[in-house]
């Protein structure tokens, strides 16, 4: 379903260039707004036997962050891949007159609309950072099968389609980021100040060292960090959420244990989501967390991006075996 996006203000002049085999298109939401998607289909003949993969980014990112490494990698392994840009991010439309792009529920509903209309079979849904919290909201609304509910944005009946599984990557935990901030304040006040400046004040956009410390490994090449820094500057025209309203709505609703296969992943060098946050998410879903050594918060862009991708690939292979007849 390829459509021309609505004209909006403030779009970056040049969208990130796509890699070979990737296409950019715009999904029309029930609201009439257009949501960017970068798609890379597998050329393998057995791709129909594997679940599609749908990727949801976090703050200051967009679909491009998955297209850099993980879309080529997973499509090469036989998976059809879809990376979306949430409203107000990347090349997606900005809601008229809005100060924030949406709520946890509206973002999850937009993802569900894309999955329902653009994806051929139940996918595995990936979420990074705040995108992981959006995936958690999706899961809580899915309730194991299909749940019909009014869409917060349109008032029409809405469905959260079934998933084959979910992967939460350096995800904000179910209770939100308040616990993360509080722990940093109590144990690492300098780190807390840096995180606040980098994210809340968007200081990462003007400081290469702070951008590297916040998102990437210390061994990352500065030229590459600067390239991603420039992309991140242009990725978010309005904030994803009103954080006060978001935290007031949390934690996300719990789901029955074993109702969906979930991989909870963290990074040993994550400057944003600490080990306690990783454990909280894993315990909430009754699974063992996986902490990938030697990578930072932006696992899919880091110089050792293959480490996380290989862990996920092994999990996907096991998942696929369980679902094959």
UniProtKB/TrEMBL annotation:
Domain AB hydrolase-1: 53-302
Gene Ontology MF terms in the entry: carboxylic ester hydrolase activity; lysophosphatidic acid acyltransferase activity
Gene3D superfamilies: alpha/beta hydrolase
InterPro entries: AB_hydrolase_1, AB_hydrolase_fold
Domain of life from the UniProt record: Eukaryota
Region Disordered: start-end pairs: 1-22
SUPFAM superfamilies associated with the record: alpha/beta-Hydrolases (SSF53474)
Single GO biological process annotation from the record: phosphatidic acid biosynthetic process
PANTHER family from the UniProt entry: ALPHA_BETA-HYDROLASES SUPERFAMILY PROTEIN, RE40534P-RELATED
Record-given protein name: AB hydrolase-1 domain-containing protein
